[in-house]
Specification:
Layout lengths: L19 H8 L6 E3 L22 E8 L2 E8 L10 H17 L3 E7 L8 H17 L5 E10 L4 H4 L3 E5 L3 E3 L3 H8 L5 H5 L1 H7 L5 E3 L2 H14 L32 H8 L6 E3 L7 E8 L2 E8 L10 H16 L4 E7 L6 H6 L1 H14 L4 E10 H6 L9 E4 L4 E3 L3 H8 L1 H6 L4 H13 L1 H6 L5 E2 L5 H13 L14
Parallel strand pairs: 3-4, 4-5, 5-6, 5-7, 6-8, 11-12, 12-13, 13-14, 13-15, 14-16
Antiparallel strand pairs: 1-2, 2-3, 9-10, 10-11
Length: about 475
């Protein structure tokens, strides 16, 4: 189990202080942290700078453990020139990232930086470039988690955006250009919170996956996230004891009525294991980590409570990125489908819904991990295909008895197919709709065509999903054999 940070309180400064070393010690297992580069200095003079700077050059770097597992980490120190990044500061971070690459261990970054050290000019910019290049090189190889605890400005924002999961403390800020620059260029008066506060990045930009009230909660979330992920793509994820799920909620059979799909997810996965990511961004899709019979999995689900579960630009992008991350780290995926299709309209079309929808399609079709889909109530049009359909390579697709699968909803379909009959006899519309439902849209019809493998009751969902994923996982064991590693 994770060490409770309150157990360390007598030995450490308050977690919300700006002490970088204290933050590192609170995050890692007691006695496990080994600092590297503590005596590093950059003695070169720069415009407006003293010749010597404090040891460490504004960042604490090293290796340690979280829940007994090795990690690499760095923590920027805002008390040293605002945590700004210069050449030595950057070299220390890149060495930690190189260590993570060689040792195949996760990386955690604690970010609190005003951006590039202006006095060092292009040297600071090159330092950022080296960090970004390594973030990209590590992507999909080892988990990268960023915890934003203070200011994250200018070039400092790109590194967390390149990592797998971003956690942000309330009161912290992230922006490329600060309020003064914004005002100078656009004459827009905006405060730092409005420009780059937590609400901006959890609800509108989608940069942040999880928010926390303070550093202690942020570290607990970082530990929990790492608990679902392997040390690297060449190793299996940690396994926990299986727990009984929550009861299956009542789901209305009428597809026009809403419900919270998270209740269905929690009734399938192990109790207390579902950790939703980006809960306030693109809420028409739900994503998150969970466990099923103790095994870490990824969950992707349409959310009928938001925009009726339609897919749009933001939700497609959100889901696609998560699918790629699960595939990279070998997490099986459970997809819960309840969608009437893609959100129509000129705004979506002109903004690139085709391009973003194709990204989700590509992510699923390219995935090699075990994948199971359950159609809860409706799966129409292109959204049916994109949401891990059998034709995209799902290992199994199940449907609940009242589920409907078709090119479009019955009302629209009847209006197109039977327009002549309806012109002659408008009163026949209801009868034609019911006939279309029973002969074209029903789950039994889809099962007869093998688009659906089996029609199951809600109560059996956990059992059949677990059985398929467990059987398919046996075929994944070659992924972690040493003789299968890339040279």
């Amino acid at each position: 189990m994770s060490q409770d940070v309150t157990d360390l309180a007598p030995e450490l400064p308050p977690l919300d202080s700006r002490d970088a070393t204290g933050r590192v010690l609170a995050l890692t297992d007691p006695g496990s942290f080994v600092e590297l580069g503590s005596r590093a200095r950059h003695n070169a003079t720069g415009f407006g700078m003293a010749a010597k700077r404090p040891p460490g050059d504004g960042v604490v770097t090293g290796i340690g453990r979280i829940d007994g597992r090795d990690i690499a980490l760095f923590a920027q120190d805002p008390t040293v020139i605002g945590g700004s990044l210069g050449e030595t500061h950057a070299r220390k971070i890149t060495r930690v990232l190189d260590h993570a690459d060689r040792s195949r261990v996760p990386v955690v970054g604690l970010l609190d930086s005003g951006g590039a050290r202006i006095q060092e000019g292009v040297g600071a910019l090159d330092g950022y470039g080296g960090i970004f290049a390594r973030n990209v090189a590590l992507s999909g190889k080892v988990p990268q988690v960023s915890v934003v605890l203070g200011t994250c400005a200018g070039g400092a924002v790109y590194s967390p955006a390149l990592t797998d999961v971003v956690i942000m403390r309330r009161g912290a800020r992230m922006f490329l250009t600060g309020p003064r620059v914004v005002h100078a260029v656009t004459h827009e008066d905006v405060g730092p919170e409005e420009l780059g506060g937590v609400d901006v990045h959890t609800r509108r930009s989608g940069v942040v996956h999880l928010e926390c009230a303070d550093a202690a909660e942020g570290f607990a979330l970082a530990r929990r996230v790492l608990g679902y992920l392997p040390a690297s793509c060449w190793e299996p994820a940690p396994v926990a004891l299986s727990r009984e799920p929550e009861p299956m909620p009542e789901v209305p059979s009428d597809p026009r009525l809403t419900f919270d799909v998270r209740g269905v997810a929690r009734a399938i996965v192990d109790g207390g294991s579902f950790l939703e990511l980006q809960p306030d961004f693109a809420r028409n899709v739900v994503i998150g980590f969970a466990r099923l019979d103790g095994t870490a999995i990824g969950v992707i689900a349409n959310q009928p409570r938001s925009r009726a579960g339609t897919l749009d630009i933001s939700s497609a992008e959100k889901a696609a990125r998560f699918v790629r991350m699960c595939d990279a780290f070998g997490l099986p995926m459970l997809t819960l489908v309840d969608t009437p299709g893609f959100l129509p309209g000129t705004a979506q079309e002109s903004a690139g819904v085709i391009r973003k929808g194709a990204k989700l399609l590509h992510a699923y079709a390219n995935a090699t991990v075990p994948r199971v889909t359950v159609v809860l109530r409706k799966a129409f049009g292109g959204a049916y295909i994109v949401m891990n359909s059998r034709s995209l390579g799902a290992d199994a697709v199940f449907a609940w008895p009242t589920a409907e699968l078709a090119v479009m909803g019955p009302e629209g379909a009847v209006d197109v197919i039977h327009r002549r009959e309806l012109a002659a006899d408008p009163a026949s519309r209801d009868e034609l709709i019911e006939r279309y439902r029973s002969t074209v849209m029903s789950a039994e019809v889809a099962a007869g065509r093998l688009s659906v493998d089996e029609v199951i009751t809600p109560e059996r969902t956990r059992q059949v999903v677990s059985t398929v994923l467990r059987a398919r996982a046996r075929g994944m064991q070659h992924r972690y054999r040493h003789d299968n590693l890339p040279q």
